[in-house]
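#lab-general

N.A. 3:47 PM
ok so I finally got the sequence cleaned up, no stray characters, all 290 residues accounted for. can someone with queue access submit it? mine expired

B.Y. 3:52 PM
send it over

N.A. 3:53 PM
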Amino acid sequence: MDINNSETKRKFGVIGNPISHSLSPYMQNAAFKHYNLDCSYERILIPSEKDLELFLLKAKRSYTGLNVTLPYKGSVIKYLDSIEESARLASSVNVISIDSSGSLNGFSTDGYGMEMALRLNFNSEPQKEKYLFLGCGGAANSCIVHLLCRGARDIAIANRTLSKADELIKHLHNTFPEAKLSAFSLYDINSMKKLLKNNYLLIQSTSLGLKDEDELPLQEELITYNLRIFDMIYKDTRFQKYAREKGCRCIGGIDMLLYQGTKAFEIWTGLKAPVEIMKKALLEKRISIL
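B.Y. 4:20 PM
back already:
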C-alpha cells in the first residue's frame, strides 16, 4: 500500500479487552510522525465477540490497519478475507491489514517479535535452543510456529488444560514431523524440573501477571538460580521480580512488543520501521507508568 498517496487521514488501532494498558499507540504514532504521515493509532475496547464482528464491518470502511490482542487473536480469524500461512498454522492473528477494497488480511508478527527479543537478551538462535512454554494461548501458538519455521526442533508445552496442549502438539506434528514436541500439565512438577535442569529456555506466555493479585505462573520450587526466563508480559510483574531475586536471568516482554510492532508497521505502510524512534517512545512511556 502506498500510504503516502492517501488523500485522507489513515486510522490504525489495537483492539482487545482489556486495552487501556496497551503501549502500542506511543510507538506507532512516533513512527508515523517520523515519516510525516497523516495517520493516527488508538486503543479500541471491544467488549464482546458480537462487538468484534460489528466493529470489523465498520473497520473495512474506516481503518487501514489493526493490531489484535487478548482475547481475540483466535476468534478474529473467521472474519478475515485472507490469512498468511504461519498465522493459519498457529490459529492466531495479531495484525490486520485492510486494503482499498475493504478486505481484511491477517498476519502474525508475535513470533518475529519474540525471536528478536530472545536474540537480543539471551543471544539465542532457534536452531540451537530448547524451549519450555508455559501456556498455549494465541501468542504462544504464534511463537511456537514461528520458532519451528525458523529451525527449532525441541519445544515442550506446559498448560493447565493438558488436552489443549496435546491437541496443539498433534496439529504441529503434521507440519513439523521431525521436531521433538511434548506436552504436559502445568502441575507436573517433576517433568518441568527435569527440563529446566537441562537448560530449557522458559517462556512465560500466560496472562498471569497482568493483574497485581495474580498468582505466580510457576511453582516457587521450580524458580531456581540461573534459570533463563522470558516473560511475554511487558510490565515488571511480581513473577519477574521474584525470579530475579532467586538469581534467574528474567526478561520482560518489552522488546517483543517493540519488534512485533515494527513488523506490523512495515506490513501496513511498506516503509522500513524506524526501530530506534519506536523504541525510545515505548521506553519513555513505560518508565513513566512504572
